[in-house]
Amino acid sequence: MDRKTVYFTAPGRVELREESLPSLGADEILVETQISAISAGTELLVYRGQFPRDVVDSHDRLSSSLNYPLAYGYACVGKVLEIGSSVPRKWENRLVFSFQPHTSHFIAKSKSLFLVPELFSSEAACFLPNMETAVNLVQDAAPILAERVLVLGQGIVGLLTAALLHEFPLECLVTADRYELRRKVSLELGVDSSLDPSFDDFRSRALQSPFGSHTGFDLTIDVSGNPSALDDAIALTIFSGRVLIGSWYGEKRALVDFGASFHRSRIKLISSQVSSISPELSGRWDKSRRFASAWNALKRLQPEKWITHRFSLDQAAQAYQLLDSSPELALQVVFEYK
User: Do 64 and 145 reside in the same domain of the chain?
Assistant: First the structure.
């Protein structure tokens, strides 16, 4: 059997390649993909050639040989077509999720597949990686009753993070994003305000909540993908507050103001990445428990309503051009396989 796979071949270039699948092993499962979600932040780094070549990341399926041509992606949902002779029959004809590149078919062992819960659509299931990331961010942030919280960036991960934070009894929850569509969806979640960080008066406006003015946020989460947002995060975080950095900037660099204000602030800068569990939680939490929380959150929040664009694999170049040149038009972009 042949499959079609999207490959990044050079900065700004993708190709659809046809390749043969190996024979199915006794302990393996053949899956036909129904939908795969583009992770705009990470995949645009690959598309633009802005990813570091020396990164190893088991969750995102990055390797130490990040060179073009590269098949990349990690949000595939499909139906089991065939199982090996030693695979339990419970896998037959099931809908499954897997961290796979954008490909029409793939072979995997059961340990790398997730059974999609009953009544879940493939559209909902393709949000699993981003929801797990959002769960991890909120767990690392550890919001406290009546805190003031700011989330910089309202792409899919930012929206999911804001949606989870909205379930907490916070004093105020403010979000920021350059794009009107994202701010509109953020407000629909019930956040107190959603602001454009490119405005000259952004910082002063951020400090005005429906409950009156305040001196800063207890917790600021950066998922903007923009290194310069760290300056806003630091400037808007109160003495002894926390700045959680969930963005992966790749090779992008920016000057950060670590001047007198930061020097005296005792602000904590915390890195957060989903491939591991915080040591403070790892005695009680493992991957399976966190995934269970992510599935439950997907059921509550139903983020499949944020799918704005659907492309076939043959239209892969157009999908990435849209995200690269007109990001203000899109929320979640997916590939559909028919």
Answer: no
